[in-house]
TrEMBL record:
It comes from the Bacteria. The lineage of its organism: Bacteria, Pseudomonadati, Bacteroidota, Cytophagia, Cytophagales. Keywords: Signal. This is Uncharacterized protein. It comes from Dyadobacter frigoris. Residues 1-19 form the signal peptide.
Amino acid sequence: MKNLIIRALFISLSFTTFSCNENADPEPVTPTQTAKMGDVSFTDEKTPISMIDPGHLPNRAPSTFNWGLVNTTKLGLDKSMKLTSPFTVAAYPAGDIGWKSDGGCYSALFPTTVTFSNLGIANIKDITIENLKILTFKSYQINAAPDGSYSWTNYLPVGTIVACKTAAGKYYLLEVKDIAVPGWIELNVYHGLYSI
């Protein structure tokens, strides 16, 4: 019985000795933190991403935008592909873009679920979302022609960048890696990536 009383006293003494503080709920360091978080909306586009990012630290550098190569695909004649994973290649017009005859002697890149803006030969690192937002996107094909063609202009030489815009407002970039008119086209697909 004596040991039981000693243990009970030891346990109660432990609780009072090792208690860290009297406040169960910590308060914000400054009143402005509470005011700022009161204005945050997780669905409002005007809320800065730094305020809704759960890992945000006040001294952390803001996110930077880059284009990341996510896929390289060779499309044969009358084929199409999805611009998102798993980048399925199927018979035209099953995908987001397609490669087929332009109705004449040569081939063209056709939009099926996206719209296009041909940026010509450009450096992908120089293209920003802000640049793309001011461009005009169309549902027209982009024609290709073999080098040295007498009466056709090749709008898809190697190195050409084609911007794609979805109905939801997402942007993707296509880079012509290789081409054999009228046979096939090899494209690099880029998605926008944010890094810290």
